[in-house]
Amino acid sequence: MDFTLTEEQLMVQQAARDFAQNELLAGIIERDDAQQFPTEQVKKMAELGFLGMMVDSKYGGSGLDTLSYVLVMEELSKIDASSSVIVSVNNSLVCWGLEAFGSEAQKEKYLTKLATGEIIGAFCLSEPEAGSDATSQKTTALDKGDHYILNGTKNWITNGNSAEVYLVIAQTDIEKGHKGINAVIVEKGMEGFEIGPKENKMGIRSSDTHSLIFNDVKVPKENRIGEDGFGFKFAMKTLAGGRIGIAAQALGIAAGAYELALKYSKERKAFGTEIANHQSVAFKLADMHTKIQAARHLVYKAAWDKDNGNNYDLSGAMAKLYAAETAMEVATEAVQIHGGNGFVKEYHVERLMRDAKITQIYEGTSEIQKIVISRSILKG
Ligand code: CAA
Fold first, then answer.
1. How far is the CA of 126 from the centre of ligand 1 (A)?
2. Which of 40, 88, 198, 355 could form a disulfide with 203 if both were Cys (CB 3.0 to 4.6 A apart)?
3. How do residues 97-147 score in pLDDT, each as one tens digit?
4. Element (H, E) at 165
5. Active site residue ranges
6. Cβ atoms of 334 and 261 closer than 8 Å
7. 336 with 342: CB under 8 angstroms?
8. pLDDT higher than threshold 80 for residue 380
């Protein structure tokens, strides 16, 4: 086993660390308060190649491995999980899905722009009545020969308003259940496609989350991804990789909160000494550090599985489950170590605690990860 990062991985990690410190930290409290999308920061991340990290350079991507992507997600998320979810959705759910399963024409038309970050994309699976129960799609894409007619509503869509390209999962043939589901590419501005109001969220407040409404939207057949009926498998395969990205986000949130708590505990004095000298604080730090390291090993292993052509459904689900639970726990303890200061915005840990919560919910709740894990271990 070799736990050393390559020169290239170390460089990419450092670039993300510098970017987060120099470009994401400034104005973060204001962006969070105002729910302001980080437009300028996304542009700069595109210039750094962070929006199409794993895409082949022939489509404009950075051609890096999953571990490099995870390292970037971790560093960005230490500071700004709103920006990192934009990166994660564009990389794992949109670019990866298109590169793996899209036609050459779709790659030429969409992937080349998405991978360079000239435009960003959204992944549209969740519905008012189909969150965890993802096969219960009510959005329909009815087959009309050379096109589909799309009707329905999608909920909680990341990049909902800022995206230009939307990968939409919809039911074509209800009789066939999940085998009658398709994934189609919808462009912003198509007639009948409306963007609903922005959600007012607890955390990751500067990422824009919207519902989307499709009213008789005519989508050409050439915009279907893969064979007829491949849509649900497309969503599941894409989400399996997405979960590694969100696991890395959770890891970064935990590590960011821990680093702040560690620093604070060496500065803040109580009862005549730095609070780190009190065992109640030192033991908290020990637990936080240990859990973060365990989460890191799970996340890197899942990335390694993906890079080495192994199945990563199980390792990705375990990484997401453990990293998300760790993020919530560590961020909450980081607030506790900060005491009263932890409860005010200037110290950043309360935002990380609010941001941590979503990692237990999106791209499959912690309970859904346990379904994936238990099914995998029970089938042997
Ligand atoms: N790869 C390939 N195929 C898969 C798969 C995978 N990882 N997982 C399931 N499938 C296939 C199954 O093999 C099955 O196909 P067959 O019938 O041909 O064998 C089919 O999909 C249906 O699978 P199940 O019978 O297991 O379906 P289920 O109804 O029991 O649900 C589930 C399985 C794992 C619970 C799934 O519904 C699920 O993942 N739910 C959570 C959805 C989710 O993660 N939503 C997140 C929204 S996206 C988001 O949050 C993005 C964002 O904005 C940040």
1. 12
2. 355
3. 999 999 999 999 999 999 999 999 999 999 999 999 999 999 999 999 999
4. strand 165-171
5. 363
6. yes
7. yes
8. no
Q: Is the CB of 71 under 6 A from ligand 1?
A: no
Distance CA 270, CA 36 (A): 38
**How far is 21 from 18, CA to CA, in rounded Å?**
5
Q: Rounded CA gap, 366 and 160, in Å?
A: 23
Greatest Cα-to-Cα distance within the chain, rounded to the nearest angstrom: 78
Quick check: CB of 132 below 6 Å from ligand 1? yes
- Global model pTM greater than 0.70: yes
Range 5-12 contact pairs with CB under 8 angstroms and sequence separation of 24 or more: 5/67, 5/71, 8/64, 8/68, 9/65, 9/67, 9/68, 9/71, 12/64, 12/68, 12/71, 12/72
**Strand 147-158 to 209-220 pairing:** antiparallel
Residue 224 per-residue DSSP state: B
pLDDT tens-digit map of 240-269:
999 999 999 999 999 999 999 999 999 999
Substitution site in 93, 236, 306, 376 for ligand 1 pocket (most atoms within 8 Å of beta carbon): 236
How many CB atoms sit inside 10 A of residue 56's CB?
14
Residue 15 corresponds to which tokens in the numbers above?
């670039």
In this structure, the residue with its CA closest to atom 3 of ligand 1 is: 233
Are 369 and 321 spatial neighbours (Cβ–Cβ below 8 Å)? yes
DSSP code at position 94: I
Does 166 sit in the ligand 1 pocket, CB within 6 Å? no
Contact between 329 and 267 (Cβ < 8 Å): no
Q: Which atom of ligand 1 is nearest to the CA of 237?
A: 1
Residue with the smallest CA separation from ligand 1 atom 8 is: 236
Query: Using CA atoms, how far apart are residues 259 and 267, in angstroms rounded to an integer?
Result: 13
Ligand 1: residue of 93, 167, 233 to mutate (most ligand atoms within 8 A of CB) is 233
CA dihedral 361, 21, 296, 332 (to 10 degrees): -50
- For the Cβ of 362 lying below 6 angstroms from any atom of ligand 1, the answer is yes
Token output for 366: 């912690």
CB 48 within 8 A of CB 15: yes
**Whose C-alpha lies nearest to ligand 1, atom 47?**
363
